[in-house]
Amino acid sequence: HWIVENNVDINESYPQIVDASQYLKDNEVVAFPTETVYGLGANATSDVAVDKIFQAKGRPSDNPLIVHISASEQLNHLVEEIPETAQKLIEHFWPGPLTIIFKKKDGVFSNKVTAGLDTVAIRIPDHPIALALIAAANLPIAAPSANRSGRPSPTTATHVIEDLQGRIVGVVDGGETGVGVESTVVDCTGDHPLILRPGGVTREQLEEIVGTIEVDPSLKEGKGAPKSPGMKYTHYAPNAPLYLVKANREKFQSLIKNKQKEGLKVGVLTTEENKGAFSEADVIIPCGKREDLLTVAHALYDTLRAFNSSDVDIIFSETFPEEGVGLAIMNRLQKAAGYRVIEE
Ligand code: TXA
Ligand code: MG
């Protein structure tokens, strides 16, 4: 049942979308592209369907899922209230890489979607295939990233197949996703909105619309209990241990040489601008351009996966300014590195 059609032309993809929407109605799980990463979709109202997501991913059941809808009118049937801040964010950022936490209506979703919480995470993805698929299924679609739990999120159908072939009925192939990191998760149920997970919509963009907005402080250290349950798990990690290097070029180069003297093969996650500086490393993978962090976000997960096809024993990564989408990039890199940072 592998649906492989590498085309974002909605007319060309139409037969695959019809097939995939029928699977969703039949309570099967299907992977599909969004503008951020590939999602693993299932009928959010069915325990049987949602359970298949957790089975396929090997995901801990205390980690709730994002519900995807295709039009904001559907919200009224799903949530208790739409606070004013949420309404503003919806007007500016939906469809798009922003997930909003609401108080859920009882009796709508499978309890497995919300992991027993009284809130629900909802977004409208900005991708023609995702929107057509959700509309055709005519259901709210629960969809985490379509990777095995702990692995980097998938930004191509090939990544999905690597992780989930044999565990799900199929994937609608829409080529590479655009943003490359997941949606920003914002909690709008309290007195002030709070960023629970940095992502595709930047803190600066949110602040233009709703004023100052804090980031869940527990994300900084990777310690304490994050308000978004999923943020407590190690994630995105390549097979070899990853270290983030906040140091000048000389220090970075001597780190590489010292590990090589110990007999280790060293990989470096770098950028187009800096790749020439690390020629002594065994494997050098540039991840976008520093001068345009959107290109780094776009390439990040593919780069982390690419190190697994090499035989490196250790990976050193450049770090990035925590501004704009850099905040999401550094959050994902810190998680992938288990918060190991080498400073000057
Ligand atoms: O870009 C995305 O958001 C992708 C695409 C497929 O839409 N989806 C995605 O889903 O990243 P997932 O399951 O990998 O991440 C969902 C995040 C987790 O950190 C989870 O803990 C959090 O959202 N979350 C879900 N429901 C929540 C709730 N009610 N309260 C707080 N956090 C919640
Ligand atoms: Mg995920």
From TrEMBL:
- On the tree of life, the source organism's domain of life is Bacteria
Q: Where is the YrdC-like domain?
A: 14-201
Which principal EC class is assigned to this enzyme? Answer: transferase
Task: Please name the PROSITE patterns in this protein's record.
Answer: YRDC
Q: Which keywords does this Swiss-Prot/TrEMBL entry list? A: ATP-binding, Cytoplasm, Nucleotide-binding, Nucleotidyltransferase, Transferase, tRNA processing
Task: Give the family, as the similarity comment puts it.
Answer: Belongs to the SUA5 family.
> What job does the chain carry out?
Required for the formation of a threonylcarbamoyl group on adenosine at position 37 (t(6)A37) in tRNAs that read codons beginning with adenine.
Protein name as catalogued: Threonylcarbamoyl-AMP synthase
